[in-house]
Write a structure and sequence with these properties.
This protein is 32% helix and 18% strand. By secondary structure, the protein is of the alpha/beta class. It has 2 domains: 151 residues, Alpha/beta knot (3-Layer(aba) Sandwich), CATH 3.40.1280.10; 59 residues, tRNA(m1g37)methyltransferase, domain 2 (Trp Operon Repressor, Chain A), CATH 1.10.1270. Bound molecules: adenine (ADE).
Length: 226
Amino acid sequence: MRIDILSAVPNLLQGPFSESIVGRARKAGVVEVEVHDIRRWTTDKHGKIDDTPFGGGAGMVMAIQPIVDAIADLQSQRDYDEVIYLTPDGQRLEQSTVNQLSLSGNLLMLCGHYKGIDQRIRDHVITREISIGDYVLSGGELAAAVLADAIVRLIPGAIGDGESALTDSFQDGLLAPPVYTRPADWDGRQVPEVLLGGNHAAIEEWRMQEALERTKRLRPDLLDEA
Ligand code: ADE
């Protein structure tokens, strides 16, 4: 898979894509992630990438020309399954969307800034609009990092233990069960007995019950959806 990200502050994205699972997946050639500075495409002689909103009001709008030229340039090099705009008024991100996007070949993400982008770009160029939650970030970069991270960890080869991503919270519509590690007795606090016994069927049954109980208690809305 290849992920191209268009950003007004590309340096913001260096860290998240250099470390941990995504960093290793890139090094291993499991995924390519390229962050592009939108300024590279502006024809404005001062390098501007914003413009005033028609109708007045506070705040600026991202200029049309650099965005449209950048997307056209990248699209001339490869076909994208989706051109995604990260914006607080997009569709709220859920695991099912991440799963679906993880099957893509190429993804293009555009990070919003200022008051956003011209509605005509949203209507005619963008194929999907995603929000990572009901709060407003300073720009779409951190949202793009969240989305890309969630996608990349699902690509075969990104996670060493192949099973691990499948047992994440939300993959079966439930929160994940609790986990424990050594020591079995930590200052008198014991690990649940069943986990020490080696009876795999009993352990699976316990995990399922714990996942159900935890979901009922913390996120009953997930059970309503199911
Ligand atoms: N840009 C600003 N806030 C955002 C959010 N919550 N999700 C996606 N993009 C954003």
